[in-house]
Write a structure and sequence with these properties.
With 182 residues, this protein is mainly β. It has helices spanning 32-37, 166-169, 174-177, and strands at 2-7, 11-15, 19-21, 24-26, 46-52, 58-64, 72-78, 80-87, 98-104, 110-113, 117-123, 128-134, 143-145. The chain contains 3 helices and 13 strands; from the N terminus they run E-E-E-E-H-E-E-E-E-E-E-E-E-E-H-H. The longest helix has 6 residues, at 32-37.
């Protein structure tokens, strides 16, 4: 597994070493050793599968706050997304800033994200399937959503009329959510 890029001070975009021949391919999607060497000694306890039928679907921006904060390992197994991470660590010099990475079935890249970042994505194709590993179980009382089109964040989703849930459309702005992470 190779580090393709590093964002902020702790988010990694990883690209697997792919072994391919006439039969297909094989790569390691998870390596406890590699993740530990990168400072991710957490145990992933849950894996989710997200299916998004339509191009230009936006989900997010979501995170869980302490004491149920989640580290994430995110990858696309079918289709492609514009993946967005917003730094919501109040004491961070990059608080409120975001990064965008393209994750796709073709590039096979994955994001390794520590707690302290809100996550969202926009589908670039129809029929997108994503897998998420999470370091904590879902806890509704610790779940937070930030409005996807918060004008203070100025995220360029590249979409004029997204497919979006009521929860995401009606979410509060970052400044109105309160302290998410110290």
């Amino acid at each position: 597994m190779q580090i393709e890029d590093k964002f902020f001070d702790a988010v990694y975009l990883l690209k697997p070493d792919v072994f391919e021949d006439r039969r297909g391919f094989f790569f390691e999607n998870y390596s406890k050793k590699v993740f530990s060497e990168l400072g991710f000694g957490c145990e992933f306890v849950l894996e989710g599968h997200s299916c998004n039928k339509k191009k230009n679907t936006i989900r997010g921006l979501h995170c869980q706050v302490p004491p149920q904060e989640q580290a994430l390992n995110i990858r696309v197994v079918q289709g492609a997304v514009k993946d967005v991470l917003v730094d919501v660590r109040k004491s961070s010099p990059t608080f409120g800033q975001y990064v965008i990475a393209t994750l796709s079935q073709d590039n096979r890249c994955q994001l390794l994200v520590p707690p302290g970042f809100a996550h969202g994505f926009c589908t670039l194709t129809d029929d997108v399937h994503m897998l998420y590993k999470m370091s904590a179980y879902y806890a509704p009382q610790h779940d937070r959503t930030i409005r996807w089109n918060d004008s203070d964040l100025q995220i360029d989703w590249g979409v004029m009329d997204p497919v979006i849930s009521d929860k995401d459309r009606d979410a509060p702005l970052l400044k109105d959510v309160g302290v998410l992470f110290p």
